[in-house]
Design brief:
It comes from Acidobacterium capsulatum (strain ATCC 51196 / DSM 11244 / BCRC 80197 / JCM 7670 / NBRC 15755 / NCIMB 13165 / 161). Belongs to the ETF beta-subunit/FixA family. Keywords: Electron transport, Transport. GO terms for molecular function: electron transfer activity. This protein is α/β, with parallel strands linked by helices and about 260 residues long. It has one domain: 3-Layer(aba) Sandwich (Rossmann fold), CATH 3.40.50.620. Helices cover about 25% and strands about 25% of the residues. The strands form two sheets. Strands 9-8-7-10-6-1-4-5-11 form a nine-stranded mixed sheet, with helices on both faces. Strands 2-3 form a two-stranded antiparallel sheet. Helix 2 packs across helix 5 and helix 3 crosses helix 4. It is globular, with a radius of gyration of 22 Å. The chain starts with a strand and ends in a 5-residue tail after the last helix.
C-alpha cells in the first residue's frame, strides 16, 4: 500500500503577525514556521496505517526552500521519502492552482491513498484536498475520524454535526481529509532524526509539472480587523427585553 500525505508549512500559531510595509501581505522576515497542525494529524494517520499494514508513506509539500524543515520532520517521524515542489509563488495561486501542482506531482506515484489535513491554519479554506481529488478523478471524503483498510477498499468514519457520524465504504485509490485531534501526535525519535538524513527527497519545479507562471490571485490589501463599539438599548418589560436580547445573541452575534 502506498500513501501520500500532503503537508504545508505555516507560521507558528499565536505568533505576533505584523502587516508588511506594502500593506499587501504580512511581514515574513521575523516569523517562525511549523507544519500545519491538521496536516500533522493526516501524517499521523498515515503512519498508523503503515504500522498496521506495512504501507509506504510519502510526504508531499509545495513551498519555498524553508519548507524543507517540515519535510525533514515528516521523514524523522516515519515517512519513507518525500516530494518537494520548490516554489515561491503559492500566494499568487488559487486553490485550483495549488491542487493541480500537488496532483501532477503524485500522478507518477499512483498512490492507493492520499491524505491531507482538513484545512490550513493560515488560510483555512478547507478546499485543496477535495479539489485535488477532483483533478485526479478519484473518490474523496472529508472530516475523517477513523480509517480501516479492507482489501481493495477502505471503511471510513466521518464526523457530522450535532454528534452524528457517517460510515462509508470507499474504493481505492481515494483521498481523505483528516479531522484534527483523532490521535495523539508522535514525536520524532533521535534514531528517526538520524535516518531522515539519508531518506530520499525528490525535488520538482513548477515548470517540470507543466504549471503556468501566470498569477491567478492578486491581494490588494491586508489589514487587521477594525474594532467597533456599539450600544443598543432594549425597550419594553424585562421579559420583552430578555427576549430581544436572546434574539440578537442568536441571529446577529451568533453565540447561542
Amino acid at each position: 500500500m502506498k500513501i501520500v500525505v500532503a503537508i504545508k508549512q505555516v507560521p507558528v500559531r499565536d505568533t505576533n503577525v505584523r502587516i508588511g510595509p506594502d500593506g499587501k501581505w504580512i511581514e515574513e522576515s521575523d516569523l517562525e514556521y511549523e507544519i500545519n497542525e491538521p496536516d500533522a494529524y493526516a501524517l499521523e494517520e498515515a503512519l498508523q496505517l503503515k504500522d498496521q499494514h506495512g504501507a509506504e508513506v510519502i510526504a508531499l509539500c509545495a513551498g519555498p526552500d524553508r519548507a524543507g524543515s517540515i519535510i525533514r520532520e515528516a521523514l524523522a517521524k516515519g515517512a519513507d521519502r518525500a516530494i518537494h515542489i520548490e516554489c515561491d509563488d503559492l500566494g499568487t495561486l488559487d486553490t485550483l492552482g495549488v491542487a493541480q501542482r500537488l496532483a501532477e506531482a503524485v500522478k507518477t506515484e499512483s498512490p492507493d491513498l492520499i491524505l491531507t489535513g482538513l484545512q490550513s491554519d493560515d488560510l483555512g479554506l478547507g478546499q485543496t484536498g477535495v479539489v485535488m481529488a477532483e483533478v485526479l478523478n478519484i473518490p474523496h471524503s472529508t472530516i475523517i475520524m477513523h480509517v480501516e483498510v479492507e482489501g481493495a477498499s477502505i471503511k471510513v468514519k466521518r464526523e457530522l454535526e450535532d454528534g452524528w457520524f457517517q460510515h462509508i465504504q470507499m474504493p481505492l485509490p481515494a483521498l481523505l481529509t483528516i479531522q484534527s485531534g483523532i490521535h495523539r501526535l508522535r514525536y520524532a525519535t533521535l534514531m528517526g532524526i538520524k535516518k531522515a538524513k539519508t531518506k530520499e527527497v525528490k525535488k520538482l519545479t513548477p515548470a517540470e509539472l507543466g504549471a503556468t507562471s501566470a498569477p491567478a490571485v492578486a491581494i490588494d490589501r491586508v489589514y487587521l480587523p477594525e474594532k467597533k463599539k456599539q450600544t443598543q438599548l432594549l425597550k419594553g418589560s424585562p421579559a420583552e427585553a430578555a427576549a430581544q436580547l436572546v434574539e440578537k445573541l442568536k441571529y446577529e452575534v451568533r453565540v447561542i
